[in-house]
Design a protein that fits this description.
Blueprint: E1 9-10, E2 13-14, H1 16-25, E3 31-34, E4 46-49, H2 57-68, E5 73-77, H3 86-93, E6 101-106, E7 109-110, E8 114-118, H4 122-130, E9 145-148, H5 162-176
Parallel strand pairs: 3-4, 6-9
Antiparallel strand pairs: 1-2, 5-8, 6-7, 6-8
């Protein structure tokens, strides 16, 4: 889209702030941002780390995040979620003791980049990465996975193109009218 997605001006703020606000609303003890430059306010209690595998996709970023996690599990969010909120994250966290990976299912698609990952998954992720895989979905069969259905699919909409953002804003305007 010409600029990193998290930095895109979305409703007057960087898009990544939607995810940061949702994590904070859900009670996150720490928010870790992997890769990119620190362009959001440091006062939000953020910790930035360089991606150990830049340009290698979400699997490399997830590995970096889990390597730097200070707790036994991490709620992972992509930086381009337009409607995520704290109540949705809290619902996902309710399933935390159940599996290595807790994935919401939205519109029949596993949301691996809006999921609760246990740090203990790191060895499997690193092994897949070293063998050449870059797909998060390719390692799901190697993990104990809990899938959550029944969540509002709209909370998982992300901005892959400028038209995604335009459509989202148009839908908001229609809802207001």
């Amino acid at each position: 889209m010409g600029t990193p997605k998290g930095e895109i001006n979305f409703l007057g703020r960087p898009l990544i702030e939607r995810s940061i606000d949702a994590l904070n609303e859900a009670g996150a003890s720490e928010v870790l941002i992997v890769g990119g430059k620190p362009f959001v306010e440091e006062s939000k209690g953020l910790r930035f780390v360089e991606d150990v595998h830049p340009g290698e996709g979400p699997l490399g970023g997830l590995i970096t995040g889990l390597q730097n996690a200070r707790m036994s599990q991490a709620m992972v969010l992509s930086n381009d979620l337009m409607s995520i909120d704290g109540s949705t994250i809290r619902k996902i966290l309710e399933y935390s003791p159940m599996a290595d990976l807790t994935i919401p299912i939205a519109s029949e698609v596993p949301q691996v980049l809006t999921a609760l990952w246990k740090v203990s998954c790191l060895k499997i992720l690193e092994s897949a990465f070293k063998s050449g895989s870059r797909s998060l979905k390719s390692i799901l069969n190697d993990l104990d996975v809990a899938e959550i259905s029944g969540l509002d699919s709209a909370k998982f909409v992300n901005a892959n193109t400028q038209s995604d953002i335009i459509e989202y804003i148009e839908d908001l305007e229609e809802a207001i009218e």
